[in-house]
Amino acid sequence: MYSDPSLSLIDFIQSSPTPFHAAQTLAERLQAAGYQPLDERDEWNIEEGGRYYVLRNQSSLIAFSLGQPGALENGLRMIGAHTDSPCLRVKPQPELSRHGLWQLGVEVYGGALLAPWFDRDLSLAGRVTCRDAEGRLLNLLIDFERPIAIIPSLAIHLNRDVNNGFAVNPQTDLPPVLAHAIEPNRDLRALLASELHSRHPEHGPLTVLDYELSFYDTQAPAVIGLDNEFIAAARLDNQLSCHAGLEALLASDDNQASLLVCTDHEEVGSASSCGADGPFLEDVLRRLLPDDSQRIRTIQRSVLVSADNAHAIHPNYADRHDGNHGPQLNAGPVIKINSNQRYATSSETAALFRHLCEQTGVPVQSFVVRTDMGCGSTIGPITSSRLGVRTVDIGAPTFAMHSIRELAGVKDVAYLQQVLTAFLNAEQI
């Protein structure tokens, strides 16, 4: 459908303002390609050579293709990514009516770069749990799509020193403005019920019981630059990797046993039932391989590529990188290495990834954080330590990670898909 990987990525991001929508978009594309849905509450009748996907919490997804007969015994080629991104989440009782304006209180999710959230056209999306007229509980996704909120900056005339440094107070500075407060008793739950009813009239009147809602920037992703060499978008970390893993899985030859796992809550530590530090992947593998001994043998023949964006060297802040490890945009995926196991890469797995890049003509780079700076982490060490699987941490180089709008290279989108497809097709790993 898409000849340009960047256009497919743009469409994916536009369809995925929250982890719930990202998982739904993944599921829809997998099902359109012939993957069959599984429900963890049911018995699974897995057929040899079958292709399946399973959702947990509507925000995490695992898809797998069993390949040719006997392929599973030779090990799984696994790609891991995460569906969540730093953002502003709506509080349970958020309504604020102040000085004639109606606002919603928010909580910062993950390590968000907060300054860019000001003066952006924001919308609201997420999951709503409600009750229909017959008393049934429903989980429905919602997306207002249009701009309905903004966080206005304070004018420089009232804060003359703002350009010398501004410490954002997330409690007092971030509540977005949605409307005038002239309407009495304006209520978020009533607003959600009305919006859902307009989109799902088949359920009749709905009573909203609870929700998980995120504000997001409505500015569409765009290919930019004098030579169209960059892609600017929200949530590139880590929807770029989710998309690349999906496209690689759909483009693979289905000869090998392959698995894509995209989990929620990475930005807050992954410790949840549907996060990488939860049992989701292990539960699926136990059902695929019920025999303990066989499962261990298969895992020890497997490799996980943990795909999560890497820090490209910023021309205005080059001193924030180690002098010999400054990945550049459009120069290929980055192998991420940390001796203290913040990344799970070993010499063996790094060599395997380099070998795949060489075979496919994809340039490859390395990243090591400055020794005098702290290092972030990924799902790689978590999954590797839980499963005992060989793991390499890699990612597309990116600017402005955790901002409301991030920047990556167009070529790197294609490079990452190319090498991940080669990984899934590799006869030996």
UniProtKB/TrEMBL annotation:
It comes from the Bacteria. Its EC number is 3.4.11.-. InterPro entries: M18_aminopeptidase_2 (IPR022984), Peptidase_M18 (IPR001948), Peptidase_M18_dom2 (IPR023358). Belongs to the peptidase M18 family. One of its GO terms (molecular function) is aminopeptidase activity. This is Probable M18 family aminopeptidase 2. Zn(2+) binds at residues 82, 157, 402. The keyword Repeat does not apply. Keywords: Aminopeptidase, Hydrolase, Metal-binding, Metalloprotease, Protease, Zinc. It comes from Halopseudomonas pertucinogena. PANTHER family: ASPARTYL AMINOPEPTIDASE. Its cofactor is Zn(2+).
